[in-house]
Design goal:
single chain, transmembrane helix, 6 helices, 79% helix, transmembrane, mainly alpha, membrane, 2 domains
Length: 160
């Protein structure tokens, strides 16, 4: 792309020099405009091909994306039905990020407002499973809240 632009600039300069050497100044603007049009058309063609290639996913690519999404979703559901350690390691950071994005509250800016908004949105019971400050460092195998709590948290996040 940069080579094309550099060659285009040299083409325009070369055309202008050639027309100036011929001593017919009427054609300077027309020849420069023609050279510029050629360069811009080539740039548009190159950019259009890249955009078109991104837009047209092959059926295999779409299938791979769908399979990857499905595998990620199944793994996330398994984590919700697993232990508290898995919940703290995998789901809590994801839910806390989504909570921050959905509400616009940042724990770093105002921790009191962050917690108050979390209590209002989720209630005391569910907020304990979203709150990023409620991680237990001890691996005792305590069960997590389960899929129903995970679904309820996601439902409340969608309503924001």
């Amino acid at each position: 792309m940069t080579r094309l632009i550099a060659l285009g600039v040299f083409l325009i300069i070369g055309v202008e020099l050639l027309v100036l050497i011929v001593h017919d100044r009427r054609f300077v603007v027309a020849a420069s405009g023609l050279a510029l049009a050629l360069v811009l058309l080539n740039i548009r063609r190159i950019l259009g091909d890249d955009r078109q290639a991104e837009d047209e996913l092959a059926p295999d690519d779409a299938g791979n994306l769908l399979r990857r999404w499905l595998a990620t979703t199944e793994t996330t559901i398994r984590w919700s039905e697993s232990t508290r350690a898995d919940w703290d390691r995998h789901l809590r950071p994801m839910l806390a990020r989504r909570y921050e994005i959905a509400t616009g509250q940042s724990q770093a800016k105002d921790p009191v407002a962050f917690n108050a908004c979390g209590h209002m949105l989720f209630g005391a019971e569910l907020w304990e499973w979203v709150n990023p400050n409620n991680i237990r460092r001890i691996r005792d195998g305590q069960p997590g809240p389960g899929r129903a709590a995970f679904e309820e948290i996601l439902r409340k996040l969608e309503q924001v």
